[in-house]
Amino acid sequence: MTNLRDFSGSGAVSRRNFLRNVGITGAGVAALPVLTAACGGSTSTGGAPPTTARVTLNDVRHAKGTVKILGSAGYQVAANNPPGLTSQWGYNTTNEQIITKTQIPGTFDFVIIYQGEIDQLLALKRIQPVDTSLIPNWKDMDSYFQNNQLIRRSGHVYEVPYHWGYGYCEYNASHVSPPHSFSDLMSPALKKKIALPDDPYAVITTFAIILGVLKPPYATNNLTQSQLNTVMAALNKLKPQVVTIIQYGQEPPLFGRQDILVALPMYSNSIVQSHKAGANVSFTRLGAFTYVDGFQILNPDNNLAGTYAYINHALTSEAQIASTKFSQALPVNNAAISVLPKQLQYTSVKQIFSEAPLMPGVTVKTNTQYVPFSGWLQAWEQYKAGV
């Protein structure tokens, strides 16, 4: 994960803003880079959803003017602008800012955020369904993304996938064996040698998977209070091993100096940057899960034709190669896989998702058996105070 900076001048991009921080973002989760089990719907891309303001494909092909985008600086790539269209950016430094910065209608036309924000934005009536017939390049995405139910609600698409990634357990292979379990993390060799990111969604989800609290087929990553207590108890047990809680991008020099020997979960090109810092790092998929960052169209959208033109162009091979090179996030168009660092290249999207599932997300509702994300945040703040 590169230590990218927020171009708005607000400082380092955190994991919850660029999941994942492509060095950096789930984005994508923040988390990631997250949805509920109420996805439903069919895999049909269908025609125009009834609530979508109508524009034609001809309008999209001849779109002009400016689109206003809210997203992470790591995704601001000039090659994404189609001819005749310019973009004006605002930046989020946490996923939560997507909510606050879209309060005034018309401030932005669309957001780039991990799929886990769909339910929260939909509950606030901030986003509208996507008419995939206005995105000819939809077909250029890997079929896994085209057909995925976690971007759908009631049969309608609410996010167009753009980039994705997964968390992994990064370790110094010259000094420790590959961690494959919680007990491996408790090894005496790792006392005060583990770093965790300051990302409650990612850390709690990762350890819920490691502990078996969350189990296949991962229809939800909601936790009851008892389950959350189990995860937090394990994290408290891990405290003697944890030397620091970091922002994404801070781990490479720590690996280089051997101040840490393990960091999890890490994302994107963290392993590349840690190699550059002189550490012989590798990774396992201990507790791994994926996120998908994508385009969600706001309601209202002041340049709907321009929004569709931008999204359509961003899925082309040319644009995906450019944004993948810049962000080091994994592409949805497989033509861009080859520009990733070799350690991050892959042959099968489905295989990675089978090993690192796309998690549906934490509820924001307060009247269910599950702890809302605000409860996760509270538990995490209490945990950090003792590290």
Describe this structure in words.
By secondary structure, this protein is α/β, with parallel strands linked by helices. It has two domains: 5-165 and 290-346, Periplasmic binding protein-like II (D-Maltodextrin-Binding Protein, domain 2), CATH 3.40.190.10; 167-284, D-Maltodextrin-Binding Protein, domain 2 (3-Layer(aba) Sandwich). Helices cover 27% and strands 17% of the residues. It is built from 13 helices and 15 strands. The strands form four sheets. Strands 4-3-5-14-8-15 form a six-stranded mixed sheet, covered by helices on one side. A hairpin with a 4-residue loop joins β1 and β2. α7 runs parallel beside α13 (373-384). The two termini are 23 Å apart.
Summed up, what is this model?
The chain is of the alpha/beta class. The protein is 27% helix and 17% strand.
Low-confidence stretches: 1-47
Number of strands: 15
Assigned CATH class of the largest domain? Alpha Beta
* Largest sheet entry: 6 strands, mixed
